[in-house]
Every structure is written in C-alpha cells, then in structure tokens.
Amino acid sequence: MTEMTTESTVYVTYIATTPEKLWAALTASEFTRQYFFNRTVESDWNTGSPWILRMPDGRVDIKGEVRESDPPRKLVVTWNVDWLAEKLPEAIVSYEIEPVGGGVVRLTMTEAHPTPIPAYLLEGGRKGWPMILCGLKSLLETGKPLNIPVPQPPKEPGK
Amino acid sequence: MSKFVYAIYIRTTAEKLWDALTNPEFTRSYWCGTRHECIWEPGSPWRLMIPDGRVGDSGEVVAIERPRRLVLLWRNEFMPELRAEGYSRATFEIEPVGDTVRLTLTHEIDRERSKLIDGVSNGWPAILSSLKSFLETGDALDLTRHWPENL
C-alpha cells in the first residue's frame, strides 16, 4: 500500500531586491529560464487565466490556472504535471512576497496538496524548490544564475 | 520529535562555507552580531555569544569533519521557556553540487511541538539567506547584521 499524504512543502528565503523585481523574476521567461531549469512561463497572470511552465524542448511541464494574482505581493497558481502517464491530483503553489525593511524581501513558497498524493512524490519539490529559489536569489543579487544539474524525478520506493 | 530541515545552495567552496559558519570573524557579519566560542574539536564545549555579552546558546561538538559535517548539541540559554526544553541537535552537512555547495541544516529535538524548533524554523531561513548573500556578494542582508533590539 502506497503511503499517501496532504503535507505541504514550504520554503522561505530572504532576497536583497524589491517586491517588483521579484514579481518580474517569477513571472517573466527571460528570468525563469535562468533559474527554473531552463523553463519558460506563459500567462497574462490575471486571476482566472491559464498558465504554463514549458520545458526547453517545447513540451509542457506544468499547466494550471492563476487562482490569485496581487502584484507584487501574492501569486497563487494551480499546478498539474502534464507529462506523466498517470495523472496526479492538482497541487496549489503560492508565492508570497513581503518587504521586511533594509531593502530585503521575504519570499515564502508553499506547495500544497489538497488531494492526497503518494508521499514519495513530495521528494521532487523538497529537492527542487531550494535549487530553484536559491538560483532565483543569486540571479537577483549577483546578476548570475547558479549552475545546478537538473534533479531526477523521485522513484517509487521498491521500484 | 520536532524537526526543521533547510537546504540552501551557495556559489562558494566547501572550505569557505565552513569558515563562514565557524569563524567568529564571519559569523559576526551575517549572524546577528553573534560569535562562537569553541575550539572545534570533538567533545569540546560550544557557546554562541550575543553581542551584549549574554550567552545565546550552548552545547557541545558531537561530531566535526571539516569541511563536510558538523553536529552540535544545542540548548537555548537566554529564553527560560526554550532553555527548559533541554538539548536539541543541529547538523550541518556540506556537499558540492554543480558550481555550488549545498548546505543542509537539520535541527531536531526529542519532544513534540517544541517551541525551540518553532523559533529556529523562523530564524534559520533569515540567517542562512544572509550567509548566502555574504558569500556571494560580500554583503550580508541588512536584516541579520545586528542583534534584534527587543530580544
């Protein structure tokens, strides 16, 4: 029996930037391709609009809908992995951006799973988000992204 | 068991990251003005000193393997409610990945709903984000350059 979970993954990072620049870095492909494993994004980022995360070879990686859009403070999107043979329940990813003074903003990313998913799959986000968001921080603070190899998707235990 | 795990990728070398974590000359810049008092040998006592002279945390070096792994026994000393929870354990693991090093911090204590772990869950992301900025840009984040006024 596969262990199921509705646990969230949360990652908090503090970045020397402005909320506007961080919002742009999260929502424009010229930035995402530098820190999000070469992926691009497509959306008008209005509440209710569709959005897509596209792989460098053109395939769709993730697609969903913009649930909440309050630039430059909060962005909530639904998250459906598009390339798996077996569809996973939809996840919800939120980015919250808060200025904390001294030219620093706090970014809180939450990957929530309202519908249970196999627990081993959480590993993907728990490994990937720190890589992505650390690359985003480096890009905004130094102008240079990190070079981290793309991690492999998690394997089901015993398979 | 209460546990906080945080991974951060920093463009630096394992040795530089190790020095930034353990050398008071560096910790002062990004870790709220604090400094370690420790000779960094297995079994040696460890203290984290607050700039005004109070002891912030204290414990012992459980394991040390420069520049890969450091395990500290860790008890809060300046907040009675947290001190009463006794010793926690903080493990720092450093591993090269691509052009970066990954620092994985695991801070855990053998009790449910620990207030200490709640507290460090808020504190570590700020301190380690600032450490990353310090190593990559030369400047720590303003947020953690000084000890907070009301603490």
Descriptive overview:
- The complex is a heterodimer of chains A (159) and B (151).
- Chain A has helices at 19-27, 29-35, 122-142, and strands at 4-5, 9-15, 40-42, 50-54, 60-70, 74-81, 91-101, 104-112, 117-118.
- The mean pLDDT of chain A is 95.
- Chain A is of the alpha+beta class and 159 residues long.
- Chain A has three helices and nine strands, in the order ββααβββββββα.
- By secondary structure, chain B is α+β, with helices and mostly antiparallel strands.
- Chain B has one domain: 2-Layer Sandwich (Alpha-D-Glucose-1,6-Bisphosphate, Chain A, domain 4), CATH 3.30.530.
- In chain B, 28% of the residues lie in helices and 37% in strands.
- In chain B, helix 1 crosses helix 2 (24-30).
- The longest helix of chain B is centred in the last third of the chain and has 23 residues, at 115-137.
- Chain B is globular and about 40 Å long.
- The interface between A and B is medium-sized, with 24 and 23 residues.
List keywords for this structure.
A: 159 residues, alpha+beta, Alpha-D-Glucose-1,6-Bisphosphate, Chain A, domain 4, two-stranded antiparallel ribbon, 9 strands, globular, B: 151 residues, seven-stranded antiparallel beta sheet
Task: Report the helical percentage of chain A.
Answer: 10-25%
Main β-sheet description of chain B = 7 strands, antiparallel
The count of domains of chain B is 1
Q: CATH fold name of chain B, please?
A: Alpha-D-Glucose-1,6-Bisphosphate, Chain A, domain 4
Strand order of the largest sheet of chain A: 2-8-7-6-5-4-3
Highest-level CATH class of chain A: Alpha Beta
Q: What is the fold named in CATH at topology level of chain A? A: Alpha-D-Glucose-1,6-Bisphosphate, Chain A, domain 4
Unreliable spans of chain A:
none
Separate helix tally of chain B? 4
How widely separated are the two ends of chain B? Answer: 27 Å
CATH architecture of chain B: 2-Layer Sandwich
Mean pLDDT of chain B: 97
Oligomer: heterodimer
Q: Give the number of DSSP strands of chain B.
A: 7
What's the level 1 CATH class of chain B?
Alpha Beta
Q: What string, H for helix and E for strand, traces the elements of chain B in order?
A: EHHEEEEHEEH
